[in-house]
Amino acid sequence: MAELSVKHLLGIKYLNENDIQLIFETADHFKEVINRSIKKVPSLRDITIANIFFENSTRTKLSFELAEKRLSADVINFSAAQSSVKKGETLIDTVNNILSMKVDMVVMRHPNPGAGIFLSKHVNASIVNAGDGAHEHPTQALLDSYSIREKLGDVAGKNVVIVGDILHSRVALSNIFALKLQGANVKVCGPKTLLPKHIESLGVTVETNLRKALNWCDVANMLRIQNERLDISYFPTTREYTQQFGVNKKLLNSLDKEIVIMHPGPINRGVEITSDVADSKQSIILNQVENGVAIRMAVIYLLASKIK
What we know:
single chain, 5-stranded parallel beta sheet, alpha/beta, 4-stranded parallel beta sheet, Rossmann fold, aspartate carbamoyltransferase activity, 9 strands, Asp_carbamoyltransf, 11 helices
């Protein structure tokens, strides 16, 4: 059986193209499973997985939990906001206490970039990064690419624009790595204040005019404005951001071609995209959510096969 080249999923930058294709082929199989009347498989009956979330994330957490339960794994949920971490316990102590309960895999969301990498060097379990600060969010990028492949047949050669707050977005970074690895052309678009200085070094081009970017692309991935991360004002008002970088139906209909609209969620309706765009037939936002479960099942299954 083909297997992943890595023991952990810490970021897309540690994967190769074969890893991504293997994850997608495995997800194809699991997508059939979750659309059957009996949605569970006994694949991971003897595996215990701990979901450790040091930051709130309803959708990612639910998606992982559902994926784990569909695979029949034993699941422990740990919310650090209500835990001993508040009493001063270190990350390694927290995780080692959980691992002493014979946990095989840890799915972790953490506000600090590199937390998963740090942990993988100190604990004896497979680590899945469910988002580390403004660094990476690998399963989101995988489900985004998988959704493009499903809609357009392939990722290679497609023009994808990522619009919005690139500076604070782990989704943007992971997507850039994943899309480039699969041979897509990538542009980023947003206010200059929200574009990292050396972003072109990742092999992407910068476009500050939204209409030009949309006319160029096959797919537009609209990022959420993360108000909770914006410690200073990066643009004058939300209304002004929306006027320059928000997508509405009128703008979509005025383009030279029909493009695919994506959003990692949760959506600020009326800010990044209007409701009529979010709910239009060009939007694959709900497909992304469904594909998230299949992709996370694939990742967990493939990593678990390296534990046994």
